[in-house]
Amino acid sequence: xxxxxxxSILILDKNVPPSSFPAVHTLCIEGNxxxxxxxLPSGMKNTLVVGTNGASKSSHVYPFSLQHxxxxxxxxxxxxxxxxxxxxxxAVENACMVVVKFYCFYRNMSTSALEEKLLGxxxxxxxxxxxxxxxxxxxxxxxxxxxxxxxMALEDAIVLQTREDVYNCKVGKDAVVDMEKRLRSxxxxxxxxxxxxxxxxxxxxxxxxxxxxRVIASLPDKLLDSKTILAAAEAxxxxxxxxxxxxxxxxxxxxxxxxxxxxxSFPEVEQYFAEREVHNKNxxxxxxxSQNRFITSLHCxxxxxxxxxxxxxxxxxxxxxxxxxxxxAVSLLYSDESxxxxxxxxxxxxxDNNSHSSSFPAPLNTFPHVTIWCAxxxxxxxxxxxxxxxxxxxxxxxxxEQPVALSGVFNFWYN
Length: 415
Hints:
Blueprint: H1 21-31, E1 39-41, E2 47-53, E3 56-62, H2 66-78, H3 95-104, H4 111-119, E4 133-135, H5 148-165, H6 173-189, H7 191-195, H8 201-218, H9 226-235, E5 242-249, H10 251-265, H11 267-279, E6 293-294, E7 299-304, H12 310-317, E8 324-334, E9 338-344, E10 369-374, H13 386-391, E11 396-414
Helix pairs in contact: 2-3, 3-5, 5-6, 10-11
């Protein structure tokens, strides 16, 4: 439809799973004049759901809050029976669990990772950078806490779906039926709470149309085809788009000044790293997600392309590229999935000849850190969840007696 009628706007909602993103990307490229505009609701939040499968315990992160899931389920149940073209309304016997399944499409994907994937769909057509558009969804920036019964029902439903998706455990029909009844009862019992969570549909629509119109108006009259774009990039020898602005650290210094000393002082830390060294003694590849691996390109991310535009990253960090800065390591956080060193970022610059004297920006991440180890099938960005896991007692933190000074060099990493 896009190829035959290019002067159109097609909306793909969140029920199009991330596994379909490459197909959308291909469509945009083949269409030559198609642009993918990522649109996300306000109130996106990394949500950690902890569950058990037999004797094992696991946790998974999702980019949407449980409040968001509750609203989605409630809206499906509000549809009159047999009125929805997609056959998902109150008449469907497992309607709630279908919505939970859609939610689980985004398992192990943080908000920043989702934004990065969305921004990678299609490509820039004519010099205009596409950024994520946010539309109002929740009334408050931080929605009120879920009622206990609703929170437990949603978490238990996600865990039930995860058993089937991840552990290939056949979930019995009775378990699904019972969970569906429980969800419908909890949604119905907390209808007033759910209705007060969000702004009106009209407000969201107005904001969406306004942002869409703004983006369309900003596009050039003539969009470049993919061959022209690639040829121009090659001719200009462009390295590609900036992926992150980072402070790159010396791995040997981190190993000798921090890890080695911690291993001598804390038996648990020694055991943790000793077990992991056995797995990667002769074959460690930090980019191979199919193995447990130590991260060798140690760095602290100050800004990611999913958090800031290319222009803002250049404006904020260009003057720092190649300069040194000192940070302080204050603790080690580790879990079964990842390990990281927490950093304290100071705004006072070094006075040596290689340091820059202008203003020093703070990292956009709320948890400045250096990831040093990742488990099989886990991404380095998941270490952002370590502070929350410490609170949930699914990770540990070792505070240093004295902060350890580390020196790094600012760099841009390109796609």
